[in-house]
Amino acid sequence: MTASSAADSLAPTTTLRAESEAVYAAAAAGVLGALYGLIVAFVAPDLPLADTDGAFGLLAAAGAAVVAAGSSTAGYWRSRNRPGQEWRKALPSWKFTVNTVSVVIVHTALTFLAVLAGFRLLALGFIGLPVITFWAIVLMTVSLGLSAYVVYLSVSRMNTQRMSTLLMAFVVIGTLTAMLTTPDPEWWKVHFSQLGSFQDLSSYVFNGTLIAAGLLVTTFAVYLANDLRALVDAGVLQNERAPRTVSTLFVVMGIMLAFVGVFPVNVNLLMHNLSASGMAVMFLVLLIAGPKLLRGMPRTYFLSAWAFLAATIASVILFAVGYFTLTAFEIVVFALIFGWIAVFIRFLGVTGQSERAA
């Protein structure tokens, strides 16, 4: 494999078949949406678009989440045969199942939150407007059909860069949702993990986001291993152990992230802290070992990695001297970890291209 083909293997791909199947999925979901809207209109007529309990928007979000789950499952399964993704067929069945579950969960959750937020925003422009039967059918058709279409295309073109973008979007949206719905407006005076210590929707969202994100990181590691292997085979990266070592560290990081959500601070403080610390340790190992593991990456990447390491050390010092609160420290380190992942994947995607240009 040449450096240019290795770079091409990292690029998102789409096909006429994927586009066509996405349209069929949207059409089927639209029909279901019309029937769902009709049922909602008869069972609960003239609902407001959104209120404190969600109203019509909550029902639309729930329906969209259901079709998103079905659409993402079918799309991700079928995409194994598409250009650039054939390698997934060689994965062990358990690994492919875990990957599918994580991708489906994240797309389902993002769809639910996006549709609910959309209706809440729409309700601000149509205050007090009841949803009559005709508009119930139309809105449900559009919501479910559009959700199925977007989700199907998303999973059909899944690659490492798209996976990292999906991961960050999911973590940010889930965390912001937990912040906006928490029953304690002064949670930030305690620590970041305080968001997950209540027995209510906000805590379920926060902890669920961490668990699902952890699963997605383990899936991300599978894609990462494939990309690194392509670059090693092309002679771009020099360390033969890079694919296995780097992906293993990411898997451990994902497990630790999931455990942070599995063990909230009010359930098991020791396990919660050990999990958070373990995630931070994996991050530091990846930064420090980078020059050896990833020899062949652009020099600019290593300069960026050292900048992230310096920022992490500075954050620890600022927290130790009392300048940072625990909440600020956790948020900064959290942002550094996911920021570095974004930079790493961007550089990984162009490493082969820079060799070809040279």
Give a description of the structure:
Mean pLDDT is 84; it is low at 1-13 and 354-358. A two-stranded antiparallel sheet has the order 1-2. 75% of the residues lie in helices and 1% in strands. The protein has twelve helices and two strands; from the N terminus they run H-H-E-H-H-E-H-H-H-H-H-H-H-H. Helix 2 packs antiparallel against helix 5 (133-156), helix 3 packs parallel to helix 5 and helix 7 runs antiparallel to helix 8. By secondary structure, the protein is an all-alpha fold. It has two domains: 1-158, no CATH class; 159-358. Keywords: Membrane, Transmembrane, Transmembrane helix. The chain crosses the membrane at residues 22-44, 56-77, 98-119, 125-152, 164-181, 201-225, 246-263, 269-289, 301-325, 331-349.
Structural class: mainly alpha
Q: Going across the biggest sheet, name each strand in turn.
A: 1-2
**Biggest pleated sheet:** 2 strands, antiparallel
Order of helices and strands: HHEHHEHHHHHHHH
The best one-word shape is: globular
| Share in helix | over 70%
Mean pLDDT: 84
How much of the sequence is in beta strands? under 5%
* pLDDT < 50 stretches: 1-13, 354-358
Helix count equals 12
Count of folded domains = 2
Organism: Microbacterium lacus
InterPro entries: DUF998 (IPR009339)
Transmembrane segments: 22-44, 56-77, 98-119, 125-152, 164-181, 201-225, 246-263, 269-289, 301-325, 331-349
Protein name: DUF998 domain-containing protein
Quick tags:
disordered N terminus; mainly alpha; single chain; 2 domains; 2 strands; 12 helices; disordered C terminus
Topology:
Layout: H1 3-9, H2 16-43, E1 47-48, H3 55-78, H4 93-125, E2 130-131, H5 133-156, H6 160-181, H7 201-233, H8 242-262, H9 269-288, H10 290-293, H11 299-320, H12 326-357
Antiparallel strand pairs: 1-2
Helix pairs in contact: 1-7, 1-12, 2-3, 2-5, 3-4, 3-5, 4-5, 4-6, 4-7, 6-7, 6-12, 7-8, 8-9, 11-12
